[in-house]
Each structure stands twice: as C-alpha cells, then as structure tokens.
Amino acid sequence: MTETASEHALSLLDRYWRAANYLSVGQIYLLDNPLLKRPLEEVDVKPRLLGHWGTTPGLNFVYAHLNRVIRERDAQVLYVCGPGHGGPGMVANTWLEGTYSETYPEIAQDAEGMRKLFRQFSFPGGVPSHVAPETPGSIHEGGELGYALVHAFGAAFDNPELVVACVVGDGEAETGPLAASWHSNKFLNPARDGAVLPILHLNGYKIAGPTILSRMERPELEQLLRGYGYDPIFVEGAEPMPMHREMASAMDRAFDTIAAIRQEARGGGPLSRPAWPMIVLRSPKGWTGPAEVDGKKVEDFWRSHQVPVSNARGDADHRAILEEWMRSYDPADLFEEDGRLKAELAALAPQGERRMGAIPQGNGGLLRQELKRPDPAEFAVEVPHPGEAIGEATRVLGRYLKGVMALNEAERNFLVFGPDETASNRLDALFELTDRRWLDRTESYDVSLGPDGRVFEALSEHLCQGWLEGYLLTGRHGFFSCYEAFIHIVDSMFNQHAKWLKVSRELEWRKPVSSLNYLLTSHVWQQDHNGFSHQDPGFVDHVANKKADVVRVYFPPDANTLLCVGHHVLGTWDRINVIVAGKAPAPQWLTMEEAKAHCEAGIGAFHFAGNVAEGEEPDLVVACAGDVPTLEAVAAVDILRRGLPGLKVRLVNVVDLMALDTPAHHPHGLADEAFDALFTTDKPVIFAYHGYAPLIHRLTYKRTNHHNIHVHGYREEGTTTTPFDMVVLNEVDRFHLAIAAIDRLPQLGAEGARLREGLTAKLAEHSAYIREHGRDMPEIRDWSWPYETAARAGQD
Amino acid sequence: MTETASEHALSLLDRYWRAANYLSVGQIYLLDNPLLKRPLEEVDVKPRLLGHWGTTPGLNFVYAHLNRVIRERDAQVLYVCGPGHGGPGMVANTWLEGTYSETYPEIAQDAEGMRKLFRQFSFPGGVPSHVAPETPGSIHEGGELGYALVHAFGAAFDNPELVVACVVGDGEAETGPLAASWHSNKFLNPARDGAVLPILHLNGYKIAGPTILSRMERPELEQLLRGYGYDPIFVEGAEPMPMHREMASAMDRAFDTIAAIRQEARGGGPLSRPAWPMIVLRSPKGWTGPAEVDGKKVEDFWRSHQVPVSNARGDADHRAILEEWMRSYDPADLFEEDGRLKAELAALAPQGERRMGAIPQGNGGLLRQELKRPDPAEFAVEVPHPGEAIGEATRVLGRYLKGVMALNEAERNFLVFGPDETASNRLDALFELTDRRWLDRTESYDVSLGPDGRVFEALSEHLCQGWLEGYLLTGRHGFFSCYEAFIHIVDSMFNQHAKWLKVSRELEWRKPVSSLNYLLTSHVWQQDHNGFSHQDPGFVDHVANKKADVVRVYFPPDANTLLCVGHHVLGTWDRINVIVAGKAPAPQWLTMEEAKAHCEAGIGAFHFAGNVAEGEEPDLVVACAGDVPTLEAVAAVDILRRGLPGLKVRLVNVVDLMALDTPAHHPHGLADEAFDALFTTDKPVIFAYHGYAPLIHRLTYKRTNHHNIHVHGYREEGTTTTPFDMVVLNEVDRFHLAIAAIDRLPQLGAEGARLREGLTAKLAEHSAYIREHGRDMPEIRDWSWPYETAARAGQD
C-alpha cells in the first residue's frame, strides 16, 4: 500500500467532483441562469430535456481521481469512456480543465461560457448528447456499446508510456465484443506497450433493469475477473468521502502496480503476462441526484438513466426538485462570481498535454507520421504476356507488407490484424520478419509466436477491428485481412468508425488519421473447403451506404494491381478502404507498368482481350470487377471471338468500383464522356461482377447506357464445390456470360444460335463431369486454355 | 460420484469411437475401397482433399459418450456442434446410429452406402463439409463461429426435459458472441427450462496458432469458468482408455448434477440460479491421426486442422501414411464384411427418437404448433378521420403481443427478446402479464423481474438473436424488438440464419419453422436522445441481398397497419420478416378495415391525401414508405394542393416494400400493370423513403416509369436534434419534397416558382427557429396543421 491522499486533498477533490456534477446537470437542463444567481424559472429550463444523467456522476468521479494521479505522477493518461452517453460529464471535465475552451474559444471559462456550454448540449446546432468526435480528448464515441476496452488496448499498443483508463459500464459489459475484449491482455507486451486500466463501473442498471454483473455475488464476479487475468481492486459504496478515500487508494495501488510491472518487464528479462490491475467501482446510478421523484425511487435505480426530473420546465414541483438538486452542489463554493472555477480547484487539473482533454493520443492525427512504403515495383510479378503467368495475389501482397513492416521497424507504428487467417490468407511472408503477438506460454514446436510480434491474431473480428481502430485513432497505421463473408461480423463497427471519420473531417482541430484498410479474401468464389455459410460478398453494399468521401472499394484483378492498390491505400488518411482479392493461384494480366496506369485510372479496357481499339465502337462490351469475374470475362470474350470472328468486343475492367459512380456523387466517379466512350451509349454491356448485382445498377444508374447493362453476380447459390462450379451455379461463368451476350445480339442470327447451343451443351457437360469426377473438366482446369488466345491477342 | 461404466462397456465404446473416426477419415479422403479390403490405390483417393480433421475425433468422442448416458438414463439430448466444420464426425455418427440412412435411403448402412457416404462428402453435388441443414439432428451450422452456446440456450428454454450438449471449440470461444453467451445461464429457469451442458473442447489450436483458453494456466481458466457460473469438470489427456474412464465419469457427474438441480428446482420452493455443470475436454487436435507428416508435427498441433496428409492421391508415401492411419482403427474389428456396423457396437446407439440424429428438436418443424393469435381488430386505434387521431404504433403492438402471450400461456411456446429496450420501445403492455426473465438476486423495489418471465433482455443483440434462433429452430415462436441502427450488430447472424432457411426449404424432410420476426424501432428519424451514432436504416438493404423468398420487409405507416403486419408475420414460417415502425406519438391514417385492405395489397393510394380518383391520371405521384416519410409526404401533398389548386396529385403508400419489386424476382412483387396504374408511366414520382434511397431504385429498376422516380432518403446527415430537423437535414421533409415536385413540373411556371420561393423561406425560417429555441416552429409542432386538410380531403 502506498500513502493515500490527505483528507484535505480529498475534500478539494470532492469539490472538483461536485463542480463537474453541477455542470453535467446544467447541460441537461438549463438554457440560462447557469450559476443559479436567481431562483430557477421556467424560461431557464430547456423545452426538450435530453441526456443521460445516470452514468455521469461515476464518470466524473473517475475523472477527478485520474486528475490526481496524473498530477502526482506526471502520468500520461487517455480516458476511454465506454458509457459514451455520459457525454455531459466528459464535456464538463474538459471545460473545467480548460481544454474545452481552448478547442472552442466561444465557450469560455466564465459565466457566459457556462451558459453557452449548457445551452449547446443536445441542442439543435449544438453538440450531441454523447461523447463524440466533438469532445476533446476522446477517441471513442460509445454510442453503440461494446468497444471501449478493445479501443483502449488498440491505443495502448506501441505507446509504452501511456496508461489508458477505460471505464466499462456494466450494461456494455453484457455485450459480446466487450466480453471478448477482456482477453486483450493476452496480447499486451508490458515492455513495449502501454497499460490499460479497466474501471468496471457497476452502477447496477441499464435502461430498465438490473445488469448481469452487478447482481452476481461478489465472489463469483471476482473469480470472473481473475479468470480474465486481472487483479481487481474493489471500490464500493455511496458516501462520498469514504468513497474518495477508497478510490484514491485504489488508484494509487493500480498505478503502483503498473509501474512495478513496467519496471520488471523493462529490465530485459524474459517476458510473461502479468496480472494487470483493474478497478471495480460500485456506485449508485444517478449518484448525488434526486433520491425520489413523484414517489418513485430514482437514485441508485434505473429511473435515473436519462432525465430524472422530466418536467422541470412545465411543473413547478419538478423545477423545485431540480433547483434543490443543483444547489446541493453549492455552486458558490465552486465557482467565482464570474463563473470561473475557484483557483484552488482549478489547480487540481493537470497541466498542458497531461490534461486528458489535451493528450495528443486523443487527437491521433497530431502524432501521425506518414508510413514509409517501399516501391511496389520491387515486388512485381513478371507477366510476359497477359494470362501467361500464374500468381497468388495476396501472397505477393504479403511480401509487400513485409517490406512495409521492415521500413517502419524503428517507428513501431504499423500492425497487421486478422482473425487467425494471416497465413491462410497467404500473407505469411510477414512471418519471415515478425511473429504473431503472444504473451502466454509457448511450446518448443510453436512457430512464429512471440511477445514482440507485430501480427495480431484472435479468432474475433471484433477484436481485430477494435484494436485497429484504437491504434489508428491514436496516430498509427494498420492493415486488417479477413475472410470476406465474416467481415459482416463488424458491419456495425464499420458504421460507427465511418460516422466518426465523417464528423472528424468536419472539425478543423481534429487532424487526419490513417485510413482503415481491409483486405477481404478467401472470398465467395473460392469455397473449396467451406461452403454456403462462407459466401457473402455484401460488405461492399453496406460500405456504399456511407458518405461517399469516406469510403473506397477496390477489386484488383491480379497481383500487380493488388500491389498498386495496397500501396496506395496505406498512404491515405481519414478513409475506409476495402480491397477484395483472392488468394488462389490465378492468371496474371498486367505488368507493373500497366497495373500502375490501370489503377490510377481506376477503370479501363483490357485491349489484349478485346478486339477494338480505343475510340473504335464495339458491338458488345464485356465488363468485369473482381478477380474471378475478370477471368471468366476474359474467357467469355475468347469464346465469343473464336465462335464469332466478325464480332467486335471490348473488355472493360473495373479496379476502383467508385469509378462507376457519377463524379457528382463520388470523387472517384468517372466523367460521363469517358464512361460513354468505354461503355458506349447504346451497345449491350454484359457485366461480370464479384458481388450482388444490384450495386452495379445502383452505381451506374445515371449513366447514358444504363438500361443496356446486364449484370451477373452472386445470387446466393453455393455449396462446397470448385470455384468454377461456383461461378456456374451463379451464372457468372464464361458460358453463361457468352450466352447472355448472344441473347442481346439478335443480329448474330443463326451463327449466334449455333454457338449458343454449343455453350449450353458445355454447361451440361460440366455439370455431369464435376458430379462424376469431383473436379472440373480438363479444359477448365487447364488454365492456359482461355489465355492462349488472350496472350496472342496481347501481341497484336 | 456415481458408479462409472465398466471396462467392458468402455472398450466397446472405444470401438464405436474408432468406427466414427474411421468413417470421418474416409469421408475426407476416399472415393472408393471404403472398407480397405484391398490396398489403397491412387484412384481410391479423391482428387480434391477437403475437410477438417482436427476437431473431428473430439466431436466423435463426445458423441459416443453422450450415446452411453442417453441409453443409460433414457435422456433427451440435443447435440449442438460448435465446431461445425467437423462435419464428417456428425455425419459419421448419424450414419452409425441409422438416422442418416433413414433420412437419405440411398446412403444405406452397408458397404455400398459407406462408399457413397465417403464420396458425397465435400464433393460437387454431395454434402457440404460443415454441419449444415442437411445433417440430421442439427440446428446449428457452425460455419461462422460464435453462436453454438447461445443456440443451445435458445433450444433449452421451455424444453424442460431436454439436455442440450453443446461443444464449444476453443477457437470459437475467442469470439465476442460466445464470450457473452456463457452468461445465458442467468436466464435459464431450472424448473421450466431444459439444461445446457457446455463441453469446452480445448484441443489447443486454431488454423495456425494456439488458442487463448488452451494456453491459460489451469487455475486461471477454472476461475474464469466458475466466474461465468459453471462448475467445470476437467477431462484431460491423450491415452484413449484413461480418457474414456474420465469422460464417462464426467458425463455421469454432469447428468447426476443436472438431475439433482431439476429435482431441487421442481420441488416447488423458491428458485435461484444453480452452478450448472460443464465439461472441459482437453484432448489433442487431430487425435489418433498421424503424429508427423513430412517431418513436421501434425497430431496435437494446428497442422492437423484440415487435411493432415495433403497429397494422398499423387504421392505414394502420403498414401501409405493415410492407409496406415485408417487401418489403425482396424475396420475389420468394427464393420461386418458387408459394411454393417458390428452388432455389439450398433447396440451402443440409443433407439428411435433418443438418437441424437433423430431427436425431434433437431428438426423443430416436427414439433411446431401454430401460434394462437388474437384478432388484431380488438386492439385497433379509433381513427375518426385520417390524421385526426394520435397514437404510438409500437405501444399498440405491445398490447397485441400481450394478447398473443396470454393465448399461448399454456403452450409456453412464445418468447419476446430485446436488448434492454422492450419498455423503451413501448412494448411494455407485456409486463402487465409477464416479467423480464431473471434468476439472480432481486431487490424489493425491482419491477417486472422474475424467474418465469417471458421477456428476455440482455444488453446484447447477439444473445437476443441467437436465443431466438435456437428457440425457433426447435419449433417455437418469438419476436425480437431492437433499435434500428444496432440491428447491424447481428448482420452476420441474420446472414447465417437466412442461409440456413434457404437450404432447409430445399429439404423435404426439414419441416417449416416459424419465421424470425424483427421489429426495428427507435429508428433513424427519432433521435432526440441520441444522435448520429444511432442512425442507420441500412439493415433492410442487407436483407434485400438474400434469397427473395426468405425475406420480407414492412414499413407500416401507423398503428393499425402495424397491428395487421405484426399479426400476419406471427403466422408465417421459414421466413425472416423485418418490420420498421416508430414509437413516438404520431398521426394515424387508417381505420382497422382500411389498414387490413392496405396491408393485404401491400401498396396503395391514400385517397384522403391526394385528389385523383382510382383510374384517373395525376400530374404528380408522391410516394412514401415508412411512418415519418409518410407524414412528410402527406404534408407535402397538402402544401402542393393548397399552393397549386389545379394540380392533380396521388399519394402512394408502401407497406410491403417487396411490392415494389417485380413479380418475377419476388413473390410479393406487384404486377406491372398495377404498378403502372399507381405510379403512371410518365409522370414524376417523388418518393419519400425511410432508408437509403438506392434500395428504392434497385427495387423499381425494371418498372416502366423508373427514370421518373426521384427518391429522398437518409443520406447520413444527423445529430441529436428533433425528428423534424432530422428530415430537413436529409431533405425528406415536406418542404424539400414539395420543392422537388415543383422542380419536376415545369408546366407550373410562375405559380410554381412563387410557391417554391415560399418553401425555401420556410426552410430558412425553420433552421433559424430551431437553433434559437431548441425545438420546432409551432406550425410543425402543431400536429393538426397538415392534417386538417387531410381530414377534410378524407370526407370528399
């Protein structure tokens, strides 16, 4: 035990806490009369009362106590507020410490500033009721619950001096992502990473009922937390002064333990996973608020969750309760006449960047250094002729990522995340340089496991996503590879991050952070080992609903294009980039030079496959987006050209999906003239698409030739079978594409009909063959088949 | 301790296990020579080797031991197999017990049947590599990991005699949903529900690395599991016979404990939550498989995850390893010459419906009884004239749900789920009849909490969704209400359930189960208390990607239509129904009779709002889907009719969103003639839509008048503000809609321009007013304003 804070210090701290509580109530209720210098009147109260009081006094309590330890130890502390709906508390505290007014000078630290502070909260044109990008010092919104602890760990990785204090509400603790997040301590390296101090806030209730953790008997709860690998320190009660004593002592013990863990780990000996301290704060919900309203229990009950006194404007009795409540904090004891916090209280806040509202990690763009990236050409695949080389796109990208990792070794600002699939997704070149992060026991036969590994694998997309978000928001870089179908697991986390970026970009003071980069692989068309449950290419549809300037979607058709796209996205900021690419051996189309040009344009003709020059008008356009659809499109064009030598065909490949959108809607949208030049204004377009067809219609809906675009995409047909059978089941294969083209070219007459008949027979033949032999017909398996012609065409 | 099984019984059980292992390996590898009556040749081996061996021997081990306790105790056991990729094991066991051949007579219990069994596995036209709807006795695919335990609890609710044995892989245990699922025991009533027996299978490895739980030190793991509320029984080792002894004893202890808990709970005394037993099975991954291949460790390591001997067809050495491995099970000791399982082993399987492949809960449609539903008219809101009554739609639905609950009280086959939002979503009438399910400590001041409650609230959408899935798949009915934005948390669970239904519907022997019904409320347009993070109406876009016949989406515009839709969906089967409806007080449009007719049609004109008769051609169509957009559309039409008395306007309301789709694509699609009659073939259509606009374009894309449809929807603009300000920010408000109409009606000339100018001024006025006063202008707040005219129109 260390010496606890003096009674005098604690009574000052109690006043500071009361000031924060006062300001929190004021934000929820008041339009005017901020210092209560006159009796509270109807017009002083907001017409719409909105906000969440219940969690707020606990958040303020934690903030005040963290301030103390920061000052005493010159600690670097980032506050992650899981119950983000306790927004008034975080705003109140940053105003008290001065960071709010520095960020928003119009909200000064005086009576008028306090009035504005109150008024703007949850007020149209003001600030949201939750912790949000607008809140100084925050990297976490907490609107959708579940991600506080995983964000905290993401922030702590590679931040050796940082302590991330993370308040976890007992409601949030019921969510799946949070329940899994406790195990993040298995990935925290005490020598090279910062610390996370979880503060489990048991205030007992959610919106309308008790929480699971708060009603467990204490021994059971303690076992759970120890089982999660923590050493819990309990702070329980309702009387302020004893609680201050307990909390001060708990904080000292936690910070002492962290210091000891660091010292031990940084002494150079072998590393192991320590039992990290955590605090369990059991305090009443709505603490210090009205005990009862209208004869019903409010304090220490779920009725204090939002606005405890609901009709304080219209009802004089309610208004009296509110006034009594606010006066119970004794504002004159806290603030000067002019609204400034009393000097002896202001002295309790840390200084400068040590203030939790001003810590640079809370505005990570301030710290962000550009990622050093090697020239992708160094990793290029040799492509003598289109279709002649075979490559595994993601394996090639893995080598590039290793190159990135090597260049930034000293900065320690690049991490790779994936749910146990980094090697399965063929990014295993990384393991030539680094390990999977692992702090627990290892065995002699383990491979690529270590405490300093820079690849993070947990079988939880939630953890991968959340760690990466926390890491990016504190100014670093990262990459997340995932099975395509299972990225839907984090649809809602993607949503929240996209929303965070959208709002952050509107705030001048928030500096750009690195983009969140996804590689979606083991995709819908490659399901040899799995099957229907592993087939869903719809994440990009979900992505396309977000603000256009925040999102990008790429479908590189081969390894060199994937290299170019991967290189590009790692240099971007404030975006979410989605790359979809396969891991299987596949024909390569473009040299590095060609790939660069193609990716820069985002869309373009594959002249080697078609037989019309630029500017010439084709009879037919075959378009494609995605690696497997590109292969099938090339093969379909080959079939058509062999069978119908007079037909003029153009093959258009789309790398940057948003190029299909109009420039008015998306910054990457292709100009209409260029679009018409590629797709014609009146010829049939057969579009082989990787995902669900409607997205292509949605993007091209305003284009001249839209009504001629016929899209073949995934239509929810599939099982465990070969990739080629998968495309056949969904009619994205060469035969169906060629048939679709013939059906839109009546001018072909009998010649077309004959070819069509042959293709229909091929499909029947395929179907019989694969069911008999368990694999594709030799002509499908023989990859050179469609590409011989393609290569020849390339020589024209 | 009970008496353990005899050594003789265990040696028989060991042979049974070997038989299952033999059949599992055979499925992964063999095309022919199933009984190895001749040396293994190249042609006997499949050309593509696919499947997951690693988890399978453990699954088989559990199955064999469950068989023993089922026989000895006449127990009802449902096997939920979390590691669903261990499909070969589940298929092998159901074949051994006879249920596979009863389900699929072409796969007989003889040598030829065994050959077909092997061949079909992971083979085109055969069965998937995972446990799937095709697998008898299964309610759980396990393709996407995380939901085994929550499904198991869903199955156990209201199934008092059932024991759900649930194997949780240590990989799966890292996921968020699984981590939260352990707490499901807080909701299990030992008197009225069945039991769940979790079997945590620590085989140590995922695809390419160790698992978190397997490398925790045992005391820490034990604390974690006790903290989750279980009494773990550890079974650890690698030697078969000692492991059989330990497992038999563990199973006996677990089933004895369950019996004791039941007896105690069913004695009529007060209920509390017991420490339920669970088994921790630590056994080698790829147990009994090759120890090493190519000099690398395989057994008891991650290399055994999929196919341990990868080139058994082409490489003679690999083939020799495979043959030795398969012969190590001694097939002649297990099977008769003709391929039948030896009689003394066949006798080890339970009989009839006690076989885990034949238990009716594994094919819940067999048990499903139609839900009794009251007449929704009993709950109708009185609507004297359109827009004259004010109602809260979901509150009215809550009364209907209470009615449903009351009618089915005896059957105990209806549950309501929600993440702590049942009351917030205004379904609180339910609490007049029942409680929130709660087994832990209660306080005197708690309300609506009890061990027998039929409303389940945990702050986890994953738990709500998973419990409901398990409950439905075992033949019961349910309802899930959720904040609209946060339903994305279960996007991927929805995916998997939709896929399960799609495949189940193709299997004659799988009987229909009740539909999964969502009510999405607290929706994007009602964010007074929350804000941008709570705004995402995109779940229906996600839904629309699934097989058309599985999904339905409803936007009832008021309470009576919500009643009709709610009543309808509770009578359906094998579908997923999504209902989006608000909870705020709002004007009511239709009487119950009108609502019934409107919902049956799915789409139709609101003649009270427009001024053209059926058959008459309007100048303009204003369409709407969603309650708030309907209000704005009615108001916009009112504005236009007042300002432009000569204008002929039709208002079309869409309840059943899929009515917009073509009948060729969706069974609810409106016929083209009817669509054209409503929307005209050439007049402008202004469409006010609840969600993201592109979905309306996608659905109407093939309609004649599609190019004239202008959709206003949510465009990711929002904060904490009034509902009306929300629609203004996204241009779905009456003023923007009317302006959009005027812009498409050039024939209005100066008259239109004047009105337009006035509307633009209104928007500016709104913007200034709300930022000044924090609420809407009186003319917006005065709900009667737009509806006076509407009501008048209704009298025409």
TrEMBL record, chains A, B:
Residues 583-785 form the Xylulose 5-phosphate/Fructose 6-phosphate phosphoketolase C-terminal domain. Keywords: Lyase, Thiamine pyrophosphate. Residues 6-366 form the Xylulose 5-phosphate/Fructose 6-phosphate phosphoketolase N-terminal domain. It comes from the Bacteria. It holds the Pfam family XFP_N. The keyword Lyase applies. Its EC number is 4.1.2.-. Its cofactor is thiamine diphosphate. SUPFAM superfamilies: Thiamin diphosphate-binding fold (THDP-binding) (SSF52518), TK C-terminal domain-like (SSF52922). Coiled coil: none annotated. Belongs to the XFP family. This is Probable phosphoketolase. It comes from Aureimonas populi.
